[in-house]
Amino acid sequence: MANKTIWKRKDLLGIEELTKEEIHLILNQTFSFKEILERPIKKVPTLRGKTIALIFFEASTRTRFSFELAAKRLSADTVSFAAASSSTVKGETLKDTAKNIEAMKVDLVILRHSMPGSSYMLSRYLEAGVVNAGDGSHEHPTQALLDVFSIYEKKKKIEGLKISIIGDVAHSRVARSNIFALKKLGAEVTICGPKTLIPVDIEKLGVNVTYNLDEAIKDADAINILRIQKERQKETYFPSIREYIKLYGITEERLKKAKKDVLIMHPGPINRGIELFQEVADGANSIILEQVTNGVAVRMAVLYLLCSGETIEEKEK
Predict the structure, then answer these.
(1) Which of 88, 173, 190, 215 has its CA at a distance of 20 to 30 angstroms from the CA of residue 81?
(2) 261 strand-pairing partners
(3) Which fold has domain 20-140+293-316?
(4) Portion of the chain with pLDDT greater than 70, in percent
(5) Distance CA 210, CA 67 (A)
(6) How open is the CA angle 202-19-288, to the nearest 5 degrees?
(7) Using alpha carbons only, what angle is made at residue 194 by residues 191 and 198, rounded to the nearest 5 degrees?
(8) 3-state SS string over the chain?
């Protein structure tokens, strides 16, 4: 993954706008920070003196904790914003909330919001950098980066691999960011799920579409299973959960039709017994918990690049 790309962006808003070289740069930095997580003392003074604000308007466990832990591993200070107890309940706009937080001299804002494009809007108003931690059904760039890193770590490449994304693609920001990243790095991507959960014209993104799960998994090098996002669904998209399980649930029996070394992935949280069964989620092919670990390393790399504007290699010169 060697390259000489220099990071020049103030923000990380989506994978769609990144170049292949910029994605490689983040992944390269991630390898360096992954080593730190393996040490007895998992902390470095790299971002000492920097302050990072976490503004989350949606519930989150993995992403929020991962960003906060990544910041602390780099010795940055963090402040957290809880929407339910903030001035937004009194009518304050997102722009005014963020501007007030920036006035307290924060260096970086991590934003999760239900509105697609919210991080783009905020980046226009703030001098501080903005990281999109998920904006509605649009994008979730750091999840895609940790997914790609996890695959690369196991398979030693991305180009030429066959990756299948299964489930609720229509409501998934994870799926979109993964498609952008994997295609830019040369993977073949297949998406699969009920027709009602596959966006119209998604083939324009360069992916294969199938509604047959066995066809989607038989030649896949990695299978990324998506959660059924009931909180984003305003109507019923399939007859019943039982029907979904029968057609698209990843069971141990069904996995026998896949390659022996196929990687099983999931962005979490898992609906066990629905999209993914326990014996598969906890089985030998699963790298789900490794994705969580890699998420901290990826976010350390992102925070470092955005706050310092240089690579570790450049700093050491």
Answers:
(1) 173
(2) none
(3) Rossmann fold (3.40.50)
(4) 89
(5) 35
(6) 65
(7) 50
(8) CCCCCCCCCCCECCCCCCCHHHHHHHHHHHHHHHHHHCCCCCCCCCCCCCEEEEEECCCCCHHHHHHHHHHHHCCCEEEEEEHHHCHHHHCCCHHHHHHHHHCCCCCEEEEEECCCCHHHHHHHHCCCEEEEEEECCCCCHHHHHHHHHHHHHHHCCCCCCEEEEECCCCCCHHHHHHHHHHHHCCCEEEEECCHHHCCCCHHHHCCEEECCHHHHHCCCCEEEECCCCHHHCCCCCCCCHHHHHHHHCECHHHHCCCCCCCEEECCCCCCECCCECHHHHCCCCECHHHHHHHHHHHHHHHHHHHHHCCCHHHHHC
Please compute, for residue 125, the number of CA atoms within 13 A of its CA located in the half-sphere on the CB side: 17
**Within this chain, domains 20-140+293-316 and 141-292 share the same CATH topology:** yes
Distance CA 136, CA 81 (A): 18
Taking the CA atoms of residue 61, residue 266, residue 302 and residue 64 in that order, the dihedral angle to the nearest 10 degrees is 0
- Closest by CA to 220, choosing from 272, 164, 146, 157, is 164
Residue corresponding to tokens 């390259």: 3
- Distances 186 to 155, 180, 223, 259 between C-alpha atoms, Å: 14, 10, 16, 20
pTM over 0.90: yes
pLDDT tens per residue across span 270-296: 999 999 999 999 999 999 999 999 999
Q: Tokens standing for 315?
A: 């700093």
38 burial via Cβ count (<10 Å: 0-12, 13-18, 19+): exposed
- Report pLDDT for 83: 65
pLDDT digits (tens, 9 = 90+) for 170-216: 989 999 999 999 999 999 999 999 999 999 999 999 999 999 999 99
Q: How many residues does the chain have?
A: 317
The residue extents of the domains of the chain are: 20-140+293-316, 141-292
Give the count of beta carbons closer than 10 Å to the beta carbon of residue 159: 9
